[in-house]
Design goal:
By secondary structure, the protein is α/β, with parallel strands linked by helices. The protein is built from nine helices and six strands, in the order βαααβαβαβαααββα. The protein has a six-stranded parallel beta sheet with strand order 3-4-2-1-5-6, sandwiched between helices.
């Protein structure tokens, strides 16, 4: 049914707060609706059925720490709730976290580590959660890890091996989707997404359904990727 299905789709789930404002709700309810595990799982099911092997979500950026403390606390509660549901889901999804763990709440890190320790290497779909993630931050951390290992001359190939994604064996995204109407990637996987196809939609993430995901994949299938050649 689908041709040229992307192996890895990365989603920037934007528009949660504007969705809440549109519906006269508190901003945090936009995050709850957008990040609800049932909503996310619908996208995972559709992605897996289409043949996608990796589905990434940007859950919390390094810049998001600048938001009000009350909002950050509420966001972390949503994250914990969703991680608990994933832990108890009989569906065998492999789970990978990219980003920093040193600044996340301890109870969030424990859930992440529990999910990452599961032996689901044969799972059809890998869910990648970018939490406390920033593209520039990832590159700086990769460079520092290389220096700590005694690397004296960095090449593209060398640095790439120290990226969060490479550490977990995650291929570069083929398709990056941003919901909510903004037309920029805001530093999400800047290195890995150099040749990714970009898809922007006006739909706010809480309203972004499996049908919208299908539409994005069908659009991707009509494109010709030349990788600079």
């Amino acid at each position: 049914m689908y041709e040229n299905v992307p192996v890895h789709i990365a989603i920037i789930p934007d528009g949660n707060r504007r969705w809440a404002e549109k519906h006269g709700l508190e901003k945090i309810l936009g995050h709850k609706h957008g990040g609800d595990y049932s909503h996310v799982k619908d996208l995972c099911i559709e992605a897996s059925e289409m043949g996608v092997e990796y589905l990434s979500f940007w859950g919390f950026s390094t810049e998001n720490w600048q938001r009000p403390a009350e909002e950050i606390e509420s966001l972390m509660e949503i994250v914990k709730y969703d991680l608990d549901r994933l832990l108890n889901d009989p569906e065998e999804y492999r789970f990978v976290h990219i980003g920093r763990k040193d600044r996340l709440p301890e109870d969030v890190v424990k859930r992440i580590e529990a999910l990452e320790s599961r032996d689901y290497d044969d799972a059809k779909l890998t869910i990648v959660l970018a939490l406390d993630y920033g593209g520039r931050d990832e590159i700086v951390r990769a460079a520092n890890r290389a220096l700590e290992d005694g690397v004296q001359h960095l090449t593209e190939e060398t640095l790439e091996r120290y990226l969060d994604t490479a550490y977990h064996g995650i291929p570069d995204p083929d398709l990056i989707i941003r919901t909510g109407g903004e037309k920029r990637t805001s530093g999400f996987m800047p290195w890995q997404g150099t040749y990714a196809e970009l898809y922007f939609t006006e739909v706010f993430f809480p309203d972004f359904t499996a049908e919208h995901l299908k539409k994005a994949v069908m659009d991707y299938g009509r494109r010709k990727r030349r990788f600079g050649k």
